[in-house]
Amino acid sequence: MITLETIRTAHDRIRAHIHRTPILTNQTINELSGVHIFFKPENFQKIGAFKARGGLNAILQLSEQERYHGRTMGPVTTHSSGNHAQAVAFAARQVGIKAYIVMPRTAPQVKKDAVKGYGAEIIECEPTLEAREAGVREVIERTGAVLVHPFDDDRVIAGQATAAKELIEDADYDSFFDAILAPVGGGGLLSGTALSTHYLSPRTKVFAGEPEGAADAVLSFKSGKVEKAPYINSLADGLLTSLSERTLGYIREHVTDILTVSDAEISAAMRLVWERMKIVIEPSSAVPLAALFKNKAQFTGQKVGIILTGGNTDLGKLPF
């Protein structure tokens, strides 16, 4: 059970290792959307993505437990298409341990390079969840590494929750926001965002943006069980994972709706942020803004927070 105290403790644990990213606004985007938007730019975060928060909270917590028992912490492992991979590699370096990262061979090269730069060992696999999980099992059998799951882990979710906690706190008072939007892949960020909002700003609604080319969460949200996407094909490479039972439970309890968008809408929103805000975001980051524009009548005149999840995009493969 993730309580408000769990999230506050996670924030205290990781505070020295992360940036408290600011709130950004843009008048042109407000005028185009008819919405007062307040962006939380986690592309400015360590490793260039919010995932640093969850990775650090999980690994620092493991390290605390090992020290309590008088032991030296062993290696860790995970599977990820990029940003969680970087988070685990970065957090492992912070505590001086080895990290083995299973990554799809199709993951952006910029993310692979960053993982190697943090000193982790990459094991490439086919771009399927089954291949990723099989790769992790092999690493665990071979090295005894501890799994830090990308989203199906309350320690990771509590770490991700600190982004929305900061957003709400920095708005100065609760219920400042009518809504907060985040993207959804495996659901770790969305779960954490929904929990922080539930505790700190209970009148604020939480919405998710999801690519049409990886639309499992919207189906799971409606059916109440973990569903597979009808097909997987989206430029939002960080959102191609299905929910877990854990994240689905948090999402169904605390999220108002999941809004799907096309790749063309994602690309247009991404380009708008690049051109008007002069900041680099990756396709997955643009999904909630794309969802807002697609459904702007629903948010007209409201104050809306949007978490820009990261900026680790391959500059040689921009979608515009």
TrEMBL record:
<dbReference type="GO" id="GO:0030378">
    <property type="term" value="F:serine racemase activity"/>
</dbReference>
<comment type="similarity">
    <text>Belongs to the serine/threonine dehydratase family.</text>
</comment>
<dbReference type="InterPro" id="IPR036052">
    <property type="entry name" value="TrpB-like_PALP_sf"/>
</dbReference>
<dbReference type="GO" id="GO:0008721">
    <property type="term" value="F:D-serine ammonia-lyase activity"/>
</dbReference>
<keyword id="KW-0663">Pyridoxal phosphate</keyword>
<dbReference type="GO" id="GO:0005524">
    <property type="term" value="F:ATP binding"/>
</dbReference>
<dbReference type="InterPro" id="IPR001926">
    <property type="entry name" value="TrpB-like_PALP"/>
</dbReference>
<protein>
    <submittedName>
        <fullName>Threonine/serine dehydratase</fullName>
    </submittedName>
</protein>
<dbReference type="GO" id="GO:0018114">
    <property type="term" value="F:threonine racemase activity"/>
</dbReference>
<feature type="domain" description="Tryptophan synthase beta chain-like PALP">
    <location>
        <begin position="15"/>
        <end position="310"/>
    </location>
</feature>
<dbReference type="Pfam" id="PF00291">
    <property type="entry name" value="PALP"/>
</dbReference>
<dbReference type="GO" id="GO:0003941">
    <property type="term" value="F:L-serine ammonia-lyase activity"/>
</dbReference>
<dbReference type="GO" id="GO:0000287">
    <property type="term" value="F:magnesium ion binding"/>
</dbReference>
<dbReference type="GO" id="GO:0030170">
    <property type="term" value="F:pyridoxal phosphate binding"/>
</dbReference>
<keyword id="KW-0456">Lyase</keyword>
<dbReference type="GO" id="GO:0070179">
    <property type="term" value="P:D-serine biosynthetic process"/>
</dbReference>
